[in-house]
Each structure stands twice: as C-alpha cells, then as structure tokens.
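Handover notes (outgoing to incoming on-call)

Open items:
1. UDP-N-acetylmuramoyl-tripeptide--D-alanyl-D-alanine ligase: sequence verified, structure written out, both below. Nothing else pending on this one.
2. Nothing else urgent.
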Amino acid sequence: MIIRVLIAVVLAVPAYFYTMRYNMHMFQQNGYKNKEHLHWLKKKFRLQWILYFGLALGIVTCVFPYLALEIFEYLILLVIIVVYRAMKRMNTKKKLVYTARVKRLLATELILTAAVFALVCGLGGMKRIPGLCLILVSVNLFLDIVANVINHPMEAGINQHYINDAVRKLKSVPGLTVIGVTGSYGKTSVKFYLQTLLQEKYNVLVTPESFNTPMGVVRTIRGSLKPTTEIFVCEMGARHVGDIKEICDMVHPDHGVITSIGPQHLETFFNMENIQKTKFELADALPEGGMLFLNGDNDYIQQQAASPAYDQTPEKIFYYSETEGTGYCAKDVKVSQLGTEFTVVTPDGESERFQMRLIGAHNVINVVGAIAVAHKMGMTLQELRIPVRRIEPVPHRMQMREHGLVTIIDDAYNSNPVGSRAAVETLAMFDGIRILITPGMVELGDKEAEYNHKFGNYAADCCDYILLVGRRHTEPIREGVLEKGFPEEKCLVFDKLEEAVSYAYAIKGQGHKYILLENDLTDNY
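UDP-N-acetylmuramoyl-tripeptide--D-alanyl-D-alanine ligase structure tokens:
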C-alpha cells in the first residue's frame, strides 16, 4: 500500500504545480474576477476536460480503492504532467506575472491543499490517498476562486490602503487638473494624443500603456505624480456597470472625454443600455464648470447626451469628423498612404489646416477630440499644428512597420466592430497585395457570431487574401467572406498566428505586400 501511495504522490506533485500554474495564469488574465473565470471555465470546458475527468476518477477511486483504478489514475496523472508541461513551455503572448497578489493566492492554495491532505492522512485514510492526490490536482480548476474568496478581506484592505495613499497624493498637488478619458474604443489613443498636444504648454502625466483599472490608476499616481504636474490624463476602463464611477470617486475628474460607445464587453455588460450608462458615469462625476467632450459622430453618445439629466451640467462640447454639428468639426479630410490632412473648424468659426502621419480617416475623430480639449485648455489652433504632426501611432493600433517589401499594419491590440471595419477599409486604399490576418473579435456576447460575419463581409471587399487564425472561432468570418463571392482558395484558416504570417510572407505576386494584423487574442481565448 505504501508503494502505491508513494507512486501517486510522486506523480501528483508535478501534476499539481503544472495545473496550478496554468490556471493561475488564466485567472490573472481574467482579471482575478470569479464570475469571469467561471464563465471562462464553462466556455473552455474542452480545453481542460482531462481535469474534469480526473476529478470524477479521483472520487470513484476514493470510494472504491481498487488497484486497477489506481493504475488508471497513474496514467491520467502522467498525461496531465505531459499536457500541462507542454502548455507551460508554449510561447504565451502574455506571461504569468508573479505579483504580490499572485504570491498570496498561491500561498493560500498551498495551505488549503496541505490541510486537506494532512486531514485525510490523520484520519487514517491511507488507502484513499491515491484518489485524493488526483482530486487535489484536478481541483486546481476551481482552487483560484476559493483562494480568492478567502483572501478577499485581506486584498480589499491592501487595495484600500493604496487607494487612500493615491487620494492623499492627488490632494497634495496644488492646482492639478484631472481629465478623465473613457469609451468603448479610442480612449487609449486619445489619451496619448492629448499628452502629445498638451505637453507643449503644460506638465502632463498620463496613465501608461493601457492602465485603466482602479489599481492601475493608483499605481500611476503613487509612482509618477509629481508636485509640478499640472494635468493628469486618466484613462478609465470598464467591464461592468459602476467601474467608471469607482475610478471617478477616487480621482475626481475636472473634465471628461467620451470617445465612443459601442458593443464592447457585451459578455459582462449584457446590453448596450448598460454600456451607455457606464460610460456616462464620467459625466455624472464632473463638477459644476466641468467640460464634457463628446464624439458627435457616435449615435449612442448623442442619444445618451440628449437625456434631461445632462441639460445643465456639465458643459457639453461635441466634436465631429464624419457628420456636422455645433462643436469642433473636421472638414476636407484627405487620406493617403503617407498620412492624413484635415481642417478643424471651432464652434466660433475659427479654422486651421492640420497634417498628421496617422493613416485612415477613422483616426481623425480621435485627433479632433484631442484638439478640442487642448484648445479649450488654452492652446490656440496655430500652436497645435506642430504637435499634431508629431502624433505617433499608439503601439498595436494601426501602427506601420516596414520590413523590406512587406509593410506590417499592426492593429493587434484589440478589435471591435467599428475599428475592424475601419482597419480593412484603410487596408483597401494601399496599392499592392493586401493581406488580412485575424482571429476575429471576442467578448461580444450573443452578438459575437453576427459581428464577425459582418466583418467577413467588409473584409471581402477590401482584401486580396484573408488568413484566419483559429478554426472554430473564425467560422462566422469565413462564412461572411465567402458569401460575398471571395475566392475560397484565398481565404485560408490556420491554427496559429505564426503559420498565417509565414504563409503571408510566402505569397507570390507583383507589388508590395501590406499585411494587416487585426486583433491578437490573449491566451485565455
């Protein structure tokens, strides 16, 4: 019996740590949110079916500790080791970061596991240890959630300490102006455009990269805010109703920008009404005298802004690029492979011609929004001409990279129904072999297949080759592509991004190749 127990333990230890690491990695990518992780586990059942099977087998082996079942259990543990070891060695897009929170979760999980194991051994259940080992390995599916619940009071206390420190630091900077930026898409771009424009005149701090969660904002304030900072541009992200309000209650924005409202994160918002309400939590937080800059091209924003709740305060300032209205308007837009030109007309009739290196007419709306904010903050249109020329593409957002006879158009950060259409329409204006590589869009709830099908329709009109990554998820795109009469031999499906890129480079033909990388799904997809 002792030998059987030793074999089970020797196999279970590496299996435990490999499965623990993988599931912690996915839990981190799911934002440490229990509901989102449970939804992911349900959605990705087939990915870890062996652990569900192992859990059932372990329970049966505990109840009926027969040698034949234990031998089968050893084989399952060996398979788990091989599979999850291979997962660990894969070149994941976003590595597991051993933050202090992750270390605390891992410590809690180890204590729980050791306690259960010791309890069973103490009760004299030696014959049940082989089955217990497989159970303890398999419950790593859910152990992160259990540990997260146990650690919640401690994590809440730690977070509150950091939040209080950030609030104190904000209050210590005299005359600081806080500008909140939110939207379903475009908020990161507008944030960095604002930095480029405003830093010509002011000392500006922005949240780095895509730091747009409460703790990301706190980290920025505690680590980078200085007594000399004059303007803090704070990006505010949201996946649930109340997320924007949580950040606003901490930073108390003086002004706000809502870049867009659209079908993003529908899996957690459930409907467009919740998205509209959440984005306008920024408007609700603005003080008397605050300015709210709104994308006038967006129907959802126009609809919400027309609500009686926003009749008086804050002051609403619209900006437009495709339509016209009272506000800042872009006119005479000219787009080429080298960049974009447009004229901005202010509400009082002043105008100025601008040039920028960003490609695509869809970028104009975000730059006009940044110009509107900077102009209202005291910069003249003439002063803004040179900084607009200096605006650089935000990494992985229609960022162009030259590689000899190939140009990569990197739009891989995140894809949405509006942005994906704009991206392929921008690709269409290039003179050469136009190649789209995409895994499609995610987090669109029940509408996901519908939006991906429409994306296929748009792409068929704009591309010479369409290379899809992932067979199941891209099927709606492929159907939409072929529905438009696109040649089937030029719409191919690959299992990995690297395979699609290699194929794109190998495509023979005359002319320069333009490869659009539209979206790059994280490892939990």
